[in-house]
Amino acid sequence: MSKTLLDLVKETDVVPYSITSSFNSSDCFSLIAHDGSGTLGFMIPKVVSILFEQFPSDFIIDYYASTLTLASHLDTEPKRSEAFARIAKTLKEKNFFPEVLGGWRNELYPVYCPQKELYLLVERAASPLFGVITYGVHITGYVGSENSKNPKELKVWTPRRAYNKPTFPGMLDNTVAGGLGHPYGVLETAIKECGEEAGLSEEYARSRLVPAGVISYWYRHKYSPELDLYQPEVEYVYDLPMDKVTVPKPVDGEVAEFKLWGVDELLREMRAGNFKPNTALVMIDFFIRHAIIDPEQEPDYLEITSRIHRRFPFPTR
Q1: 215 and 232 Cβ atoms separated by less than 8 Å
Q2: Which of 121, 173, 175, 185 is most buried, taking the most CB atoms under 10 A from its CB?
Q3: How many domains does the chain fold into?
């Protein structure tokens, strides 16, 4: 059955807005900063129980308030980052949450405090356990029509994810995408990923990348029946207008192939559920910005646009 665009949004932005006022939910614990200054993320009870059992000196648990607070001695960023590195490493060594930590990346993700300053660093693979906001960069490389200003005639370079990838193997993706790890900047990451994933030179990417805003959504990733983790995500989006001569090529094994597809083909594949879920949202945003999706023809236009620009009850960068 063909999906609507709103269906695609609902598959990715799945956490109800009412949860922000329901901290005592049996399915949700708040991860609190050591000084009580803010909530860093939402966690499921199974993870909270194991963390407190294994690392009682690093956390304070309040079952009545459904909170897990970092211990007061973790009062500097280096102390917190060291603690979270130790916690993640120990969990992996003891084979806790292999569905999550099996994708260990040796890459650090930043977590911010209410003052928008770096609060701690956490191993990328472990970040879903803590329910903190993660950041990424998504780039849509497209070729326009020389003889027409009709946006529906543009074509997008669309990769198919490698079939051996641990997540969403064989699904369609954005031209280039990658996580925003520490200490890299947004543009720096975009340029780096263009080279690593599509074989585009730094000069080519830097001269053509156009920042086009952000999308945000609150996903829940069901790693297993008992691990349905909260994953709030922010994606910085870039447009990459390309000439007809340059062809992206798989480089790092992340991509099986690239195809240049028109709007109708892309919408068909999106509605068939063949795109990686968050990538479908990036494509919807791209189509809205390029007037391919408009409020005259899309009955759910308002809900779609609001839900792909979600606000979170957590500090951001």
Answers
A1: no
A2: 175
A3: 2
User: How does DSSP classify residue 289?
Assistant: H
* Residues 83, 160 within the same domain: no
Beta-carbon neighbour count of residue 71 at 10 Å? 16
Instruction: Tell me the two tokens of residue 1.
Output: 């059955």
Which structure tokens are listed for 130? 């803590």
- Cα separation of 97 and 94, whole Å? 9
pLDDT score of 198 more than 50: yes
Taking alpha carbons only, the member of 294, 196, 193 closest to residue 235 is: 193
Indicate the DSSP class of residue 245.
S
Q: What is the pLDDT of residue 270?
A: 98
Residue 23 confidence class, pLDDT cut points 50, 70, 90: very low
d(CA 143, CA 255): 20
Residue 144 included in any domain = yes
3-state DSSP assignment of residue 142: strand
Identify whether residues 118 and 202 lie together within a single domain.
no
Token digits for 122? 């956490």
Whether 263 contacts 154, CB under 8 Å: yes
Among 130, 149, 169, give the residue marking a domain's end: 130
Burial 132-167 (b: 16+ CB within 10 A, else e): bbbbbbbbbbbbbeeeeeeeeebbbbbbbbeeebee
CB within 8 Å of 207: residues ≥ 6 apart: none
> Where does the pLDDT of residue 26 fall: very low under 50, low under 70, confident under 90, or very high at 90 and above?
low
d(Cα 213, Cα 236) in Å, to the nearest integer? 6
Range of the domain at 26: 17-130
Beta bridge partners of 132: 41
Residues with Cβ within 8 Å of residue 69, at least 6 apart in sequence: 31, 32, 33, 34, 36, 59, 60, 61, 62
Nearest to 17 by CA among 293, 307, 314: 307
Q: Measured between alpha carbons, how far is 121 from 86 in angstroms, rounded to an integer?
A: 11
